[in-house]
Amino acid sequence: MRKSLLVLATALATASCASLPAYQAGDGLPDAPAQWAAAPRDTGAQASRDWVAELGDARLSALIDEAFDTNPSLNQSFARYRAARAAARVAGSDRLPSLNGGMDYTRTERNTGSGSDSFSLGLSTAWEADLWGRVADGANASALDAEAAADDVRASQLSVAGLVAKGWFSLIEAHLQTELAERDLATRQSSLDLTERRFARGLVRSSDVRTARSALASSEAALASRRRAEAAASRSLEALLGRYPAARLAPEGDFPELGLVGDIGTPEALLTRRPDVRAAERRLQSAGLRADAARKALYPSLSLNGSSGTGGADVDDMFDLDSLVSSLTASLTGPIFNGGALRGARDQAQANAEAQLASYVSTVLTAWQEAENAIDADAILAQRVDNLRQAYEEAAEAENLVIRQYASGVATIFDLLNAQSRRISAESQYISARRERAANRVDLYLAIAGDFSAAQSADPAAPTGE
Known about the structure:
Blueprint: H1 2-18, H2 51-54, H3 58-70, H4 72-93, E1 98-109, E2 115-129, H5 134-200, H6 206-240, H7 267-273, H8 275-296, E3 301-312, E4 325-333, H9 341-407, H10 413-447, H11 453-457
Helix pairs in contact: 3-5, 4-5, 5-6, 5-8, 5-10, 8-9, 9-10
């Protein structure tokens, strides 16, 4: 019988190992090129060690530091990490024996009116021998989940830093657009004053005055809209910082002066650098281990149970070693019929692992796509900023020329208003393009998971509040 059981156990172990599906992180991924398709061959720039510092905005750095302490989403990520790490400790405890102690008191009454007391004190222990590695699979899967949660914290740190930076740039843009609208209003008022003086001298018609007044009213409406947009941008950033959204956060300075991008690594290196990709890979490994554990649940299990106790009619009997009684039980059990629950759980776990593999592939492809888009856009947006700067400067010169021509009676009111509108539109587009380029540079740093000091000082391995 012992020989038969040994042969059966060996056969089951061999069958279980032979039937395990392989869930490799590289399955389904296209071959990665040696370098980014959109990257220049040689930028001449050094590797970026702190992209927040490279932006050269001390106020932005302070806001990111503040967000790391107060942002609700980041605090939520830290809490989820602590929960995952606690769950890993719970799963790991199944590999060790359990020990419980208890003390009982029983009072028995008889119809005759007499009764008796019984006291007992005991210890019990239980342990499941991990014959197939099922318990170890579950513990290791939970440990991988905790590591994935730590990567989620890193991803949240990147996301929050990026959102704060782009929110700050949006606030700067909104403020610059508001200042532009204020200058536009002053320009329209000056044009109206000039038109009214010329009308008083009989040099223009009354329709010119009304046209200038109409342009002034439109500028007043545009200014109100810009002020509203600036207040909304301020509230949005305040909410990211965990502040009450009172629109009291005012911008300082201008957009950063952007130089060459530092070392952006390779597509292959990105797989170990991006925290969301690392988290997806660890969850894939965890799902594979859980599929293995669900499969091994179909095999017999060996449990050991022991107990030791003392007791008697008196309290003192609980501490009498002569009454000590001990027992040890070993049981080998295996599932025979459970309505297909175990097989269903096995199939479910395997399908979950396959879904996690697809999720990992999707995460990697998205990461590569985001990086390629940001790298490609960096050079394009730099050229666009230069073009719009030139367009704005030419429009400003043209406006100055038309103003002099209108004052001397050569140009019409429509020539003047059109020149002013072109200059305002060109300057507005120039401001927006500069904000877009700065935001894309942040997206590039996020896509390649660039380092920065605030994230390095906030280690998810030792989160606050623990």
